[in-house]
Design a protein that fits this description.
GO terms for molecular function: CDP-diacylglycerol-serine O-phosphatidyltransferase activity. It catalyses: a CDP-1,2-diacyl-sn-glycerol + L-serine = a 1,2-diacyl-sn-glycero-3-phospho-L-serine + CMP + H(+). Pfam families: CDP-OH_P_transf. The chain is mostly helical and about 280 residues long. It folds into two domains: about 190 residues, CDP-alcohol phosphotransferase transmembrane (TM) domain (Four Helix Bundle (Hemerythrin (Met), subunit A), Up-down Bundle), CATH 1.20.120.1760; about 80 residues, no CATH class. A two-stranded antiparallel sheet has the order 1-2. Helix 1 packs antiparallel against helix 2 and helix 1 packs parallel to helix 3. The longest helix has about 30 residues. The protein is globular, with a radius of gyration of 21 Å.
């Protein structure tokens, strides 16, 4: 009985992952054919809720101590469907279809870049090169999909009936940027190293106040767009700052650079405290 219960616990985190797949598949069925703006809105909501199931499967695995390589691979396959193919078809039907082949190509590029990012992550994970737990390498595919769904939820009525292809160009630019960021080496914070303090609490209050102000001035759905945009911009800004810092260091004398590198090597890095494999399948 105890052995059967243990086997059943291994199924629990995978049920969260399969639920994410179901929502992604449901979003695909809603977006297929001559989808109405209301159906596209429902598809965006389905992808948005899939993000919650994807966020909790790894946590459930750690709580029940049922981490496995099978769960990591299943999560990656689920992400290709729910956060790659489903958002790509959604944004194509919502805004990019009037652009013809260009719209089709960039919608496909989003799904392809998401798959490439997941494949790169799995290869690095198998090599044991997870990198720092404080940063993602490249924009996580669920957050890229979340940006698209946030745009659809906030604007679907305007774009659902529009016929002017020029109104689709800003969406095309966003999709191209998200595709590039997923396969880039731009680092994005995981916030795993954030602890409760006066500074973190102040940042949380400020972010909440900004969201409430945006929701009050426009609509509540626009707050999600602002949060997604701010996260993307923060990663780009930190990456540019780091490149500028590296360029400045390269201009220093070799002996000074060696001394700085030796000092940084002595500092503890932001490694995972538990090192569980389940951490690998969160927002990959």
């Amino acid at each position: 009985m105890q052995i059967n219960l243990r086997k059943a616990m291994f199924v629990l985190p995978n049920l969260f992952t399969v639920s994410s797949i179901f929502l992604g598949f449901y979003a695909l069925t809603l977006s297929a054919g001559d989808a109405t703006p209301a159906q596209l809105y429902q598809a965006a909501l389905a992808i948005f809720f899939a993000m919650f199931f994807d966020a909790f499967d790894g946590r459930v695995a750690r709580m029940t101590k049922t981490q496995s390589d099978f769960g990591v691979q299943l999560d990656s396959l689920a992400d290709v469907i729910s956060f790659g193919a489903a958002p790509a078809l959604l944004v194509y039907k919502w805004a990019l279809a009037p652009l013809g082949f260009i719209g089709l190509f960039f919608s496909f590029a989003f799904a392809a870049c998401g798959a490439l990012r997941l494949a790169r992550f799995n290869v690095l994970a198998q090599r044991g090169d997870k990198g720092s737990s404080a940063f993602f390498v490249g924009l996580p595919i669920p957050l890229a999909a979340g940006t698209i769904t946030a745009l659809v939820i906030a604007h679907y009525k305007e774009f659902g009936a529009a016929t002017n292809p020029a109104t689709r160009v800003p969406v095309l630019v966003v999709v191209a940027l998200l595709s590039f960021l997923m396969v880039s080496t731009v680092r994005y914070r995981t916030f795993k190293d954030v602890h409760l303090s006066a500074r973190s609490l102040s940042a949380f209050v400020l972010a909440s106040a900004v969201g409430l102000a945006v929701a009050y001035a426009t609509r509540a759905s626009f707050a999600l767009v602002v949060y997604m945009g701010a996260y993307i911009a923060m990663g780009l800004a930190e990456s540019l700052f780091e490149k500028a810092r590296t360029l400045d260091r390269s201009r220093l004398p070799p002996d000074v650079r060696a001394e700085l590198d030796a000092d940084e090597a002595l500092e503890p890095g932001p490694e995972d405290v538990d090192g569980d494999k389940a951490e690998q399948d969160e927002y990959i």
